[in-house]
Amino acid sequence: MSTEENPAAAPRSLAEALRGRDDASLAALLRGRPDLITPVPTDLTQLATRAGTRASVVRALERLDRFTLQTAQALAVAPDPATYEELLGLMAGDDGDPAVSAALPHALGTLREQALVWGGDDRLRLVRTARELLAPSPQHPSPTGLGPTVREAGAGMSPGRIQEILATAGLPSTHDSVSALDALAGLFEDPERMPALLDQAPSESVEVLERLVWGPPYGQVTADPAPRLRWLLDRGLLLPTAPGTVVLPREVALRLRAGRAHRTTEPVPPPVEAAAVHRPQMVDATAAGQAYTALATVEELLKDWHEGGPAVLRAGGLSVRDLKRTAVALDVPEPVAAFWVELAYAAGLLASDGEADERYAATPAYDEWLEQPAGERWARLATAWLAATRTPGLVGERDAKDRTLSALGPGLDRSVAPEVRHRVLALLAGLPEGAAPNTGSLLARLRWERPPRAERAGGGASSPYARRTPAQPAEGARGAAARVGGSGAPGYPADGGSGAGGDEDLRSRLARWTLAEAEMLGVTGRGALSSHGRALIGAPPAPRHGDAETEPAGPGDKLPVHHRRTPPPPALSPAEQATAAAAAARLLEPLLPEPLDHVLLQADLTAVAPGPLERPLADMLGVLADVESKGGATVYRFTPASVRRALDAGRSAADLHAFLAAHSRTPVPQPLAYLIDDVARRHGHLRVGAASSYVRCDDDAVLNEILADRRAAGLGLRRLAPTVLAARTDPAALLEGLRAMGFAPAAESAEGDVLIARADAYRTPPRTPPEPVPDGPPVPDDTLLAAAIRAVRAGDLASTAPRKPVGGGAGAAPGELPRTTAADTLATLQAAVLTNDTVWIGYVNAEGAASQRVIAPIRVEGGFVTAYDHTADEVRTYPLHRITGVAELAD
């Protein structure tokens, strides 16, 4: 039965409205506003109080789509309470709009579900805090552009002046100001008398009204207003609010707007349009190529930091110089280098070592990652990217304290980033297969789903001051005031949208970065979502291009698939995300190129790898040669330094010859064989150890040559024996100095053995990937929701159950704990055990938190009462000294 049929059933408060909901409706509220159960409220009254707090309401408003937000804004300027017909008139106007009429029930249902609106269709009430946030005031203009009502604006006027306005407007005088303002408001709301009044207005006065009708509604006048303003002031079409300031009353503006609260309503989300359509096979192949490049880039980055990467800044993060060096090493721009560094960090492959001289290096997880198949390695990177709250696009910008944000440094977390990434990919998944989106339409859709802050608090697509910053309302009011008495049209942008650059909201910037990063990572190919990218987010199969797939969006309304008003898909649980990542890896694996076991050696001391190499071959070739160019085929160059590097790693000349012969499809060129033999002949001829350091050589002529060389002066060499030189420098510096002079010394241990320098030397201790910064409390799962609802209902039962008076008195007031003496408490509980009655107690826990509970005592002994607690739905034991009092429940 509706509230119209049964007025007594109409809720008198939000708590009563929540009390009338079923469990499914309460679960939807707590799922949409998880901050309401952190911690779990004791009863529905506390839940309603928490739902009306400013912080919670602001958060709920931020998660509304544009049309639902416009509905809430219309309710804020409607009578309180309002009927559904009044709300529909404000949204659809006097002429009506079928699309608005079709979409309004859904928007109103969302507001009810989120506990922002309560009451039946005959008495709709916006939560008081939401009304305070959205209602117009001089300090905080409404996004509707409306001003105060006649009653609000005329509250400070003298009774005589109000009666003068009535007489000039052709209305009979009244006995008080309240009835006079009511009569004036009735005139402005009358669809017949108001047009007749405006027909009498001079054209200049009508022009003033047209300038103020869509807001801002405030203007300034002089002590002697111009005739066109005097005509309006005398009839109450403009009312003074402060000395020299006038306002267009809300009733006048609505009549001039044909009843609309908004200039433009958007009941249907804008479609995401396709900019281009490619063959799905081409999209997958392109994305697979990008995925392979992503794996190679991350490997190259961490190989470059094998022996310890850049130092960690004192404030954390990479220095600008180190980021530039990394970009040069990867042959990418600096912003792209920041993305790869942050991606490796988010995946747990890169971290700081935690030493006193802290540096970045690969983690042990990197070695495990290298052993996995290519598809699984990519899935790990892509999954980490999806969930990361760190935002590489912010690197190089300034924070609130004017400090530069650095890669791997603090201040890069944006909790909304994972949600935006998922939503962007979900919108791509709604396009036909192989379709790349039009970026503008994609951003417009995101702005519709989550309007920028300017639209929520004082500006929007329907407002002429959409781009005004929060610090500007007063200036905007003065500017509008100047136009009241002057000439010219307002110069505000008509679209009210966010532009690029500094004016663009964070969600739009995150969306742009998502599109770019998804392409680099291989989630998309040529801008379209790939099949493995679709599997990564758990999206259903793509609609085929040209399919006429439609579903009703409202009465008599059909929309294409990508135009539907569908809510964002729920976030995947960790188990579901792992399953989706495994499916994506299986789809990607066949598309990646097979590793090769050979190279092509050339006479110019280069080797060409015509594709990706098997890991042992790539690792060995990376030690033996330097990468000269990358691309579809990688070119390696052999140099004396690279060959010496392989010899330092413990390989002999025979090993190198055998390796090249085994892995080359072409004969080993003679120049390369000569190079290896020549370097090996001189390698280890000199031995360097610690004295501070020393050099020993069986050929004293070589030592004589070193002593005679001027470049050896800085090494502090002196002869200890015909075959031994001592040096003041440490062994590492002595090695570098001799190599710079053209020699090929080898380091040796204290026992005289040659030290082997391996390429994979340094790893950090085990590290866990950075935890994403949550965007508020996590969404509760079904188990937690069921337990929370059961506890809230039990607590509500305890707080609302009728109670007998305590000790013959009136009993405790609602919300107060019962108060009885210790003897009365003990006697009442013992009697309840004998009669199996349920009683109501007040209880104070060890932390001092007071609560009220409904219990069924089972036994009382040893200073404790054991009872079934209806509030917690379990058997509990309570110390008697912590029970403030007890009362019997009424029949």
What does this structure look like?
Pfam families: Helicase_C_3 (PF13625), WYL (PF13280). One of its GO terms (molecular function) is helicase activity. Helices cover 43% and strands 12% of the residues. It is of the alpha+beta class and 891 residues long. It is elongated and about 125 Å long.
Q: Can you count the beta strands?
A: 27
What portion of residues belong to β-strands?
5-15%
For the termini, the CA-CA separation is 27 Å
Uncertain runs: 1-8, 459-503, 547-565, 807-811
- Main beta sheet strand tally, sense and closure: 5 strands, mixed
Biased composition (Low complexity): 470-484
GO molecular function, one term: helicase activity
Pfam families: Helicase_C_3, WYL
Domain WYL: 825-886
Strand and helix map with partners:
Blueprint: H1 14-19, H2 23-32, H3 44-51, H4 54-62, H5 66-77, H6 84-92, H7 98-113, E1 117-118, E2 125-126, H8 128-134, H9 150-153, H10 159-168, H11 177-189, H12 193-199, H13 203-212, E3 218-220, H14 227-234, E4 239-242, E5 245-247, H15 250-256, E6 274-277, H16 280-304, H17 320-330, H18 334-346, E7 350-352, E8 360-362, H19 364-371, H20 374-387, H21 417-429, E9 435-437, H22 439-449, H23 453-456, H24 473-484, H25 506-521, E10 524-525, E11 528-529, H26 531-536, E12 550-554, E13 557-560, H27 574-588, E14 600-602, E15 606-609, H28 615-624, E16 626-629, E17 634-637, H29 640-648, H30 653-663, H31 670-682, E18 687-689, E19 693-696, H32 700-708, E20 718-721, E21 724-727, H33 731-740, E22 746-747, H34 782-800, H35 822-835, E23 839-844, E24 850-861, E25 864-869, E26 874-879, E27 883-888
Parallel strand pairs: 18-22
Antiparallel strand pairs: 1-2, 3-5, 4-5, 6-9, 7-8, 10-11, 12-13, 14-15, 15-17, 16-17, 18-19, 19-21, 20-21, 23-24, 23-27, 24-25, 25-26
